Amino acid sequence: MSQNGQVERYRSVTYEAAEVIERGGEDLESVFRAEYPGVARLIGSIVRDPGRAEELAVEVFLRWGKRSGPGSAGAWLRRVAVRLALDELRKRKRWERVSGLFGKNRTEGAAERRFAVTRTLEALKKRDVELLVLRTEGLSYEELAQVLGLNLASVGTLLARARKSFEEEYRRHDPE
Amino acid sequence: MKRSTVDMIPNEAEFGKRLKTLLEVKEWTPDTERAFQRFKQRRVAKRRWVTVLALATLGLFAFGPTRAFTQKCVEACVAVLRPGPGTADFDLAAWKGSIVVVNYWATWCPPCLEEMPWLSELAARYAAQGVKVVGVSVDERGWEAVRPYLAAHPITYPVVLDSPKVREGVGAGNAIPLTVILDRDGEAVYRQAGRAKKEDLETQIERLLGASKQM
Predict the structure, then answer these.
(1) Taking the model in full, what pTM does it have?
(2) Which residues of A are less than 8 Å from B28 in CB distance?
(3) Parent domain of A85
């Protein structure tokens, strides 16, 4: 009897088993595997730091394991992902301000321009960024209303306003 | 109504495409496998804390571990009493003075798994008489394999990972399942390599309990 064969056969009894019990039937591992790359890339697109993005993405799933809100798993995970990413930007901005006091120069020029979109997101209202980014991620109006706690009828208007603010702000950071 | 909101943003698709391009992070593929491992570790660590707190609270109410409590805490107890690295310190000598049933097993060993439910029942039944049962897992993947199995198939006795100290105490060979009974002096008085019989174990335990009563 090959031990490896046995190990393979019993591999189905993995962490999922424990999680399935805990979450009342939801399969945490398969959701993780399916959603993780998307969630990590979403955070990465905002914080622009792959290493940090992966850490935050894991954090998103830890929070999800604790409590999932209304709407589909994907939509909820993405909302939390955007929030964590924005918090990260804000934290970083504070830190930059502090280190600026001690004369550390920020990289200028090309790098700065590449991050024009990041600067724009930093400057916008939190809800506007959430709306724009989540819409880009493919969430429907219904899902946006659900995960952001908005009135469905106002989602379109809010999105249009958010888009306008984005355009104005972006032009400020990248005049071209 | 819905129609008019759509009309207000005619170039939404175009904007979405542009924002997507702006946000795109090139040349990066998130490492899902590594992330999942990290996720599991952190989750277990988190749960261990919750368990410690829960046990501490329960401890305030329950003076000693009652049978119901023992059965309930199964996985939690295992995690708390014998966290991964700590198993190296588990020493059978600490239980000297008690009758100890040591059961070697692994999650990939069907005969071993068959023994566990009745060993579990036996452990609960003789707990009051000071008989201790301990499972020793030889799983190569250690807790990663053992903990989920126990979560899905709760048992009433603690499980430790195989360690030199346990081996020394039992004189284990390489075959599993292996069941050994140690008497109050720590001497192995019964040894069954391969599937053990519940009745045999009961007979041995009763005999040892009877012997100690006479003393």
Answers:
(1) 0.49
(2) 41, 44, 50
(3) 1-104
